[in-house]
Amino acid sequence: MEFSHILHTDVVDCYGSLYTHSISWAIHGLKESKEKKGKDSLLGNKLDAHIQASRYGQTNGISQGSVLMDFIAEIVLGYVDEQINLILGKPTNFRILRYRDDYRIFANSDDRVEEILKVVSVQLMLVGMKLGVSKTLLSRNVVEASIKPDKLAGIDLQDLGDASAKTMQKQLLRLHSFGQRFPNSGALRRLVGEFHTNISNQKETPDDLEVQVAIATDIGFVSPSTFPAVAGILSHLISLASTEEKPRLWNKVRNKMKRVPYNGYLEIWLQRVIQPRVIGIPFASEEPICKIVNGESLDLWENGWIASDGLKDALSTSKIIVKSVSDTEEVIQPEEVELFKQKAWAY
């Protein structure tokens, strides 16, 4: 209510561009880090050295996908926040909200927003980062512009309910259309997950079963991040087919999903839904985890540098198999997909 302008911006390749020396600046301050540059007495220098060693000596970039690296990136971005606060002073006529590498700047004039954006940009550049010009957008509708377009569209789609799409095919087509506009979005993942829960109650085989399978598969093809829930939807739909039809439909799904590049994650879920005994299709894959599930003995990680036999034994992949995949249930229940969200903190 206090502001009339909002500017969206975010950091381009945040993790890949982070200047590793800035980790020490963030922990110990710029002055002490400069005075003790390269000395192991500083935790920041140790972290800097280890990260460089993992990236062939490069001083730009940290790895992605690790909670530890998320924490280190947040330390550096928090340091940038402090520097911005020192320059701009008390926020009497502006606010800056940051979530990870995404910024929202609130003010009451174009000029003030631009001034703040310049300060943010300069401070980020000092730690190796830069803002994305193509994703920097200014708006004078503070409420609407505060919400991501996919979230607004998702709310609209959710509020339509089943009234305007009474058949499963029409509901799937709505999700498919939404996925074309907002692929891999959080809103799409939520909506597909909700559809998975709803379709679990369908008990009769629909006349357009193969059409529904085709639409659901294409949603996963365009937005691979939705595939766990899509796999659940497909497992339910194809379970309604005749015993003779099931292998044919699953082979069509498998052949389509093979065209997705770097699809190891999809292969794991496909193995889960294709290899149960009731389906009866052998599942060959080059994905290491799929090979381990099929009884092969191989290392998931490079263990050659480990000297301790006990540690190597602890990392043995044979211990992660607790049940034959052929003994699993044919249909993925919503709880099985939700498990990974509920227990995400533990992984």
Report what the structure shows.
Strand 2 and strand 3 form a beta hairpin. This protein is mainly α and 347 residues long. It has 17 helices and four strands. A four-stranded antiparallel sheet has the order 2-3-1-4, covered by helices on one side. The radius of gyration is 25 Å and the shape is flat. The longest helix is centred in the first third of the chain and has 22 residues. The mean pLDDT is 89. Helix 2 packs antiparallel against helix 4, helix 9 runs parallel beside helix 11 and helix 12 packs parallel to helix 14. 53% of the residues lie in helices and 6% in strands.
- Terminal CA distance: 40 Å
Number of strands: 4
Low-confidence stretches: none
* Count of alpha/pi helices: 17
> How does the helix and strand content classify structurally?
mainly alpha
Strand content: 5-15%
Blueprint of the fold:
Blueprint: E1 5-10, H1 14-17, H2 21-28, H3 30-35, H4 43-53, H5 67-88, E2 95-99, E3 102-107, H6 110-125, E4 137-139, H7 142-145, H8 149-160, H9 168-181, H10 186-199, H11 209-222, H12 227-239, H13 245-257, H14 264-274, H15 288-293, H16 309-314, H17 334-342
Helix pairs in contact: 2-4, 2-5, 5-6, 8-9, 8-10, 9-10, 9-11, 10-12, 11-12, 11-13, 12-14, 13-14
